[in-house]
From TrEMBL:
SUPFAM superfamilies: P-loop containing nucleoside triphosphate hydrolases (SSF52540). It comes from Streptosporangium vulgare. This is DEAD/DEAH box helicase. PANTHER family: SNF2/RAD54 HELICASE FAMILY. Its EC number is 3.6.4.-. The lineage of its organism: Bacteria, Bacillati, Actinomycetota, Actinomycetes, Streptosporangiales. Pfam families: Helicase_C, SNF2-rel_dom. PROSITE patterns: HELICASE_ATP_BIND_1, HELICASE_CTER. Residues 552-724 form the Helicase C-terminal domain. It is an enzyme of class 3 (hydrolase). InterPro entries: Helicase_ATP-bd (IPR014001), Helicase_C-like (IPR001650), P-loop_NTPase (IPR027417), SNF2-like_sf (IPR038718), SNF2/RAD54-like_C (IPR049730), SNF2_N (IPR000330). It comes from the Bacteria. Signal peptide: none annotated. One of its GO terms (molecular function) is helicase activity. Coiled coil: none annotated.
Amino acid sequence: MGDVEREDPASTPRQVRTLFQRAGRLQSHARTLLADDTRARTEARRALSSVRTRLAREELGAIPLTRLKDVTVGRLRIRALEQAGYQTILDILDTTPYALQLLPGVGVWNARQAHAAAGQIAKAVEETVALRIDVDEQDDETTALLIALNRLVNAGPDLPRASGAARRIEERLTPLLLAAQPARGWLRMLLAGQRGRRRAREAVARIEEVIAEANASETALLFSQTSVDLLRPPVSAIEAWVDFELRASEYYNLLAEIAATEPDRVASEGFLPDDISARVKAQDLDDTHRRVSLRGYQSFGARFALAQRRVILGDEMGLGKTIEAIAALAHLWACGERHFLVACPASVQLNWVREVETRSTLPAYSLRGGDRAAALAEWIRTGGVAVTTIDTLHRLEVPGDVTLGMLVIDEAHYVKNPAARRSQAVARWCGRTDRVLFMTGTPMENRVEEFRNLIGYLRPDLIPGLRNGDAAVGAVGAAGAAGAQSFRRAVAPVYLRRNQEDVLTELPDLVHVDEWEEFSPADLAAYREAVADGNFMAMRRAAYAVPETSAKLQRLLELVDEAAGNDLKVVVFSYFRDVVTAVHRALGGTGALGSPGSPGEPGDSGDPGGRVHGPISGDLGTARRQQVIDEFTAAPGHAVLLSQIQAGGIGVNLQAASVVIICEPQVKPTMESQAVARAHRMGQVRKVQVHRILTADSVDQRMLDILRGKAGLFDTYARRSDLAESTPDAVDISEQTLARQIVEEEQRRLATSRPSRA
């Protein structure tokens, strides 16, 4: 399949016939590609049907017989069926109406109605059954499905582009070739009449345009390469399962498309008003420079950023906000924009550069380190995506004649304080940029007012519609009604939020377990001393004060050993560096981490088995941090990654881990959710166990009691709740206020106090 060459405009029947031959070859290539694609997808759908049937039968086997009454409005008499031993809907489906009617007390009508009602339930279950692929249960049906999907996944992101181009060529050439038929001979043209001749000449010109466009984009070569990928022999079962573990998100993306299991439309569109949703869906999204397929909700997110121009993308962590941003940048690049700037925390700068290079054809430049000046100069000269840190944005000098196609601020909640220097730098850049995308899974942490501040950077015109209270922001509509519902309506033009449970139905289960322990005598003594001193931070880590007798540490080791026995990877989070150090020593690590104050050499754990990686901490360089994560991910079987929660809980992907251990509760509930979302995110293939280790009757318990309301604040305003369950003032607790309250309560309880150092 070579390129279709273009000659001068066809003017003679011979030239037209030659043109028809070239067009026919191009159309044949397109049809071949579409046939290969259809064949591969049909095979995948057939395998999927077998899996869904098996899953549906498992679910039907758990549905009690009494549910038949729900379908038949209670008219069925099911006692006779139960007495005959039928207990579930599956029992009814596995027999026939004739066999049922022979049972005493059933009869013909009841038998037919019971079987029909069971069929209705079965159809509903099969249409809605959640498809989750469990790597620990590699049954034959799922293996066949993965083998079928592997062919499509390995065709890569070029497959959707090739299929789309093939459909467009087929749709355009078929009527044009028919209309141009008279131009193939003088006699035909003569008999076609004046109108027919004009139509034929116009069709010939259009055919030449189609061929010229195909040559310019090397479409025939794309068809050829994609067909070769689709015709490769199927991989083995082992290869399919290994590839699925490595690229689970790509398999699930394709599976959602084939199974037509995209999430509820309203939920996937963030519950936006209809007028905004319609405007977003009308926005084009060019995929020429994108190298990753998007799910429906991701495509909508990218279009939202483009259509609304200055927005906050607040998707819950693990849904692929970075990919949505890159899709928007790739579209703008195709439209002629050339300069884009991403500002992010230092911990994810390298990851951003990697993602841009992997997910698109856009060049990426890291504006950090010794090559910063050269990279900046090259970016200014040639364009692409420049990636810098939020904290160094104020030092970035870019000529005024360089126009940004889009400014992206990742983890935008870092600039919630307008008085901070980094916030002021972001505000200045927002002022010189037409398109701005803020990305954050946690648009506020303590006060709704912080969310208002983010909106102020982007759309100051929306601020009059928001009321600034003493401690938080409510929402005021035309009628003056305040609350979460009106707040979300007011911010809809600028804010899009989707949650995991609404759009990622395939995510494995997330199991939370609170592990309650008692203080050892030594740790209790340390705790009482910290309470007496009013030292809140010392109270929080007192349970690890004497590692040799620490009940918390002992439980942590038991959890790690259990994970090792099941060959699972573990990530351990703590706010405190000395707690991470204690865990590192207890797991067998030695070396530079021997002293709590030394940063150590991450990855050089010193344990004989090499299973301990890290720690990831704030003083760890970006490149080294990514290297530690890569080594942890690539380690065969069981491994443990240690991290301070501030450093490893944001912006990194830890799907390799399926056990998360949190050493103590966090002051900010969002910090814990961020850490968990590093593992429980798109691409995770195993059930994620989250173990939070707590000490009873201590600061841990007091914190949980107080923070329960605080965690609800985000749900009320930033998620999709329709009603505010409590006022923001009631749950707006700063860290200092929380510390003082807990210290005072514990001092009263233990009847001890010294000057507070909370």
